[in-house]
Amino acid sequence: MPPYRGVRYHLSEFSSTNHPTNARELFNLRHSSLRVTVERAFGALKGRFRIIDNKSFHKYKTQVKLVLACCLLHNWIIGFGLDNIVPAEEGFVGALPEDDEDVPLEEPAMVNVRDQICNAMWASRGSSTT
Which residue in 10, 46, 4, 39 sits closest to 24, CA to CA? Predict the structure, then answer.
């Protein structure tokens, strides 16, 4: 689901004094934050398990199982010892994702879903943090 185009997106465009001013900016802020988190998680997995970082010759179903197995192993390792691959969360400053020029055109059905999510976020913004 792509962010809204032509609306502030990158985390650096928001600050403690420069809050989202409308529903679309709030959606894009949370989309960007989630994207950085997901990219960081995949980076940690790729750093720990080289099988994910290399081009796979396995069937798609096997690739899915490999990623799930690596996630399980990763979580087990974190739960039972110090982790040298994933740095501590506090004080982490992630790299901003590059703009995607090859983002597919927006599907009308997904635009509707995104708008519903966006409006729900905006309506509940007082009861949660951005």
Answer: 4
